[in-house]
Amino acid sequence: MDDLLELLPGYNCGKCGYQQCRDLAENIRTADDIGRCPFMGKQQFAKNRKKLKELLKTTVKRLDIVGVIDGLEADFTLAPLDGEPTCREDIHPIDGTEFKAGDFVRYRPLGCPITHFAKVIASGRGMTTIHMVGPQQRLGNEDIEFIDGGICLIFAFDGKIEQGRIPKVGETVKFIPTLCMMQKVHSGIVVGIEDRNIRIEAIDLKVW
């Protein structure tokens, strides 16, 4: 890491999509990634660029993040935001069932064979934000009464990148929620990112 960082400009300008040069160094995997820095293409950094390419051939190995159920490769794993039990999810019941904050709901995401259990954080205008409480976490809480939400569309995830690369806003990404029982690769579009906190919308379980 120190060798990579020493060869980067060190301007911490954010033009590569990362806040600091160190973040870029952490996510460099191939020679093509060097091009994310607009300054590395300038003549004054030509020697550094050559050294970086040589270094990448011998020292940097890609972190493989692979889904268990589908064997697909993901860009990163998605963990809960600091201080929260699970990633936040925005869901919408296809049958129009309405929830309110504090409700416990039972539903099945469209495209997923597993019934999920969740606690509602907020709800309004057809969108419900939840924290997962099962099926794994539900053990020992069978006395809780759950509202049946039927099949739900999953619109968004809010979480924190745990392992893997940091993407750009607008990029389509593949990710694995850390508490996903099936460890299945999800896909979606990055609509907001700050440090490692990220919001992903247009969620799809069918990864192309």
From TrEMBL:
<dbReference type="GO" id="GO:0046872">
    <property type="term" value="F:metal ion binding"/>
</dbReference>
<dbReference type="InterPro" id="IPR007202">
    <property type="entry name" value="4Fe-4S_dom"/>
</dbReference>
<keyword id="KW-0479">Metal-binding</keyword>
<dbReference type="Pfam" id="PF04060">
    <property type="entry name" value="FeS"/>
</dbReference>
<dbReference type="InterPro" id="IPR051069">
    <property type="entry name" value="ACDS_complex_subunit"/>
</dbReference>
<dbReference type="GO" id="GO:0051539">
    <property type="term" value="F:4 iron, 4 sulfur cluster binding"/>
</dbReference>
<keyword id="KW-0004">4Fe-4S</keyword>
<feature type="domain" description="4Fe-4S">
    <location>
        <begin position="1"/>
        <end position="54"/>
    </location>
</feature>
<keyword id="KW-0408">Iron</keyword>
<protein>
    <recommendedName>
        <fullName>4Fe-4S domain-containing protein</fullName>
    </recommendedName>
</protein>
<keyword id="KW-0411">Iron-sulfur</keyword>
